[in-house]
Specification:
alpha+beta, 5 strands
Length: about 270
């Protein structure tokens, strides 16, 4: 089964129905909004869409509907294309909601061969509908596609059928084993060598006489002890000094009374 078409295989006015369809999920809508940095709440905020919009639910991004719609046409229109030359007049005709399944069909509007002779352009109009058969989008595009005689994309450049694998030929017969050679007979055994005369054992040497102990040295006499030092005589204790006699009171002055001073007037 081929993928795409050559220019000769398009017929103006032909309607091509693309299959299968595609169901758009909540994950598709959320991830596409994140990838394209589209932060409009109508695509990601369910509460906002339910309370603030006329549809009462989230709407799938239009570029996502276009991407899926054009992707469905590749296998039948531009699968062999050299390049996409133009996309024009994209029309959003109805909203697409999460859970909708969309389908595509295309009409061939025009074909034109180029001056090079190995390629040409094809223009198609694609209509995208949902499971309720409501049209949600329409767009036109022009693609440059090769002809069958193209040097690298033509018919001769397509992979042909595989060559059949070579069948294995008849197996060669296995060589039969020849007669076995007779085993060599063992020759006569050599006589074992007789042991020679044993050498006489060496006689042990005479032991040296043990050294006799010499005379013992006289023990040293203990030195005389030094006489102990005699204790020094004690100094005589100092005698207490005699006490001084106490002074005797002198005779009182009699007959010479001191004159009394007059008391102040306030005390009289």
């Amino acid at each position: 089964m081929g993928y795409g078409r050559w220019l000769e295989e398009f017929t103006v006015g032909e309607v091509i129905r693309h299959w299968p369809g595609r169901t758009i999920t909540e994950a598709d809508c959320t991830w596409f909004a994140l990838l394209t940095m589209n932060q409009h709440p109508i695509h990601s905020d369910a509460h906002y869409a339910a309370t603030q919009t006329q549809h009462g639910q989230r709407v799938v991004l239009g570029p996502l509907v276009f991407s899926i719609g054009i992707g469905m046409t590749v296998a039948d229109v531009s699968g062999k294309a050299i390049a996409n030359l133009e996309i024009e007049r994209i029309t959003h005709e109805a909203p697409t909601f999460i859970g909708d399944t969309i389908y595509s069909e295309s009409t061939v509007l025009a074909t034109r061969e180029s001056s090079q002779g190995d390629r040409g352009t094809v223009t198609v109009e694609t209509r995208v509908t949902n499971q309720r058969d409501e049209r949600v989008m329409t767009f036109k595009r022009t693609a440059l596609v090769p002809k069958k005689n193209h040097a690298t994309l033509g018919l001769q450049a397509q992979p042909g059928p595989q060559r059949p694998q070579a069948q294995p030929g008849p197996q060669r017969p296995q060589a039969q084993p020849g007669p076995q050679r007779p085993q060599a007979q063992p020759g006569p055994q050599r006589p074992q060598a007789q042991p020679g005369p044993q050498r006489p054992q060496a006689q042990p040497r005479p032991q040296r006489p043990q050294a006799q102990p010499g005379p013992q040295r006289p023990q040293a006499q203990p030195r005389p002890q030094r006489p102990q030092a005699q204790p020094r005589p004690q100094r005589p204790q100092a005698q207490p000094r005699p006490q001084r006699p106490q002074a005797q009171p002198g005779p009182s002055r009699a007959g010479h009374p001191r004159p009394k001073r007059d008391a102040p007037p306030s005390l009289q």
